[in-house]
Fold this protein.
Amino acid sequence: MSDLVLAADLGGTNLRMATVDAAGVVAHLVKRPVPEDVSPHQLVAFIDKIAGQVLDDVDRSRIAAIAFTAPAPVTDDFDGVLTKLPNLGSVTGMNLKVELEKLFSLPVVIENDATAAAIGENWIGASRGVENCVTVTLGTGIGGGIIINGRPIRGKDGIGGEIGHMTVEPGGRPCKCGNQGCVEEYASATALARMAVDHRHPARSSLQLYESWQQGDPIAEQIFATMGRSLGQMLAGLANALNPEMFVICGGVAEGIDAFGDHVRTEIAARAYPAAAKTGVVVKGELGDNAGIIGVARSAFVRMGTHSIEGL
Amino acid sequence: MSDLVLAADLGGTNLRMATVDAAGVVAHLVKRPVPEDVSPHQLVAFIDKIAGQVLDDVDRSRIAAIAFTAPAPVTDDFDGVLTKLPNLGSVTGMNLKVELEKLFSLPVVIENDATAAAIGENWIGASRGVENCVTVTLGTGIGGGIIINGRPIRGKDGIGGEIGHMTVEPGGRPCKCGNQGCVEEYASATALARMAVDHRHPARSSLQLYESWQQGDPIAEQIFATMGRSLGQMLAGLANALNPEMFVICGGVAEGIDAFGDHVRTEIAARAYPAAAKTGVVVKGELGDNAGIIGVARSAFVRMGTHSIEGL
């Protein structure tokens, strides 16, 4: 019986691969660093090797489909070609879908990584059963996935959900995306570490800053307040524009939500229409690092007809 | 044959009422100022009187439904009660749907005014056939309607599309919505007139300022550039978040789009992802003051089954 999806989260740093069943249970998880400056050919060989480890004690006939996230734009009718990969530039132009189909001789589904996280949380995570929600992935950068009427908004060019590059300071810091004042420059792990340096705080990472915050450090408190207000300003705009039921905060930085979550909520309450601010609750994601794997597996189950969600 | 909808655009200043047929043709248009501080009872009498004028030479059996826009939040399952009416506060709490049903003994459809304009433009106007688009209504204030996969995003509380209250200047001008730095404070007709005063320019309205611009006035050029950049900053955020195919500029101020449109486009190009900026063309609405009437009539035709659009 083909009851599993071989699902992977392909990032600039790591490849995480596992089996996911139709209830969203993740098993046989393997995580390995992606070789630096990997070529398309090397990436396929690397995927093949990791898949061998994941499937070491799994009957291969149980695998019904291959599901990969990619740190790249993915449209509704995605052809598989990886474009605009700031974190995995060495494989730009590669057709990941075609390569995976050749490698596994199985149907292949690819989702943008943040969109996949949103789908995962919307399936069995924090926003399960919520028709309209915005998921923010807070890590080195900021990504996002927007679900409206139960369907992800991938956008005409697969840019949909790139809320990390909405402007919060019109004349603010230059961002690598070409804009200035993006929320990513004020609320990502990178931004937290930079603000620590700016404040001559000894923390050199968002995690160290969070540990200082836990010890009552007032500078850390101030930095997380600034960070939370920037994030809240951006989300307040989306509260007015989309009036969703929920904002889900995912990604590594979400682990520190007790340091900044209330600042986010306060800023949304101050800036959005009262009804929209009250409706759009801010919660932490529940699936941790597995959100993407679970989400893209969900997409595969839906496309195979195992799960029915019109239009996912 | 019941082939017409009696459609009306109920605003804080005017009531516009007409018949609309299944092809979107507007006829028998009557426009009258809404009495100041009108009570719910007076409003019903006023509507009855105007309807009498509109239908003076129309066979009443041709009217299949009543379709009204309101300057109020309208949800997917709207019960008809008017709430949060900054421009028509004297009828707050009135159940417009029930009153109209009693008055006309016909099915009643109500849409938020800006959402209706977006639906109208999406039916037979500038964005006809476009699956994903954002419509901005530029007038005294700024409203908006967002259509994704052909369906308007009304939001959980009917706030969806309130893009005039997205922040563009975090520490900026206080807005009557309670936020500060809303794009409405920088890009509405009111904002244009205020900026003229700030610059000691003789224009006292956005129209006068536009006439100065047409004559090559450099201060007017500067003000429209500022205005266009603010609007472009907000739309660039939506270009990244939703990656739509089109931005439609409607409302009275849209008539001056040649003074500010290119500044909007330049700002979107500078701030949004290149693919999203290229895809999201900025155009002027085509239906003028009739966009709302046409749009809400469309909603009525869809709900009656005359037109089929799943979920409108």
Summary: The mean pLDDT of chain B is 95. Chain B has ten helices and ten strands. Chain B touches chain A through 49 residues (CB under 8 Å).
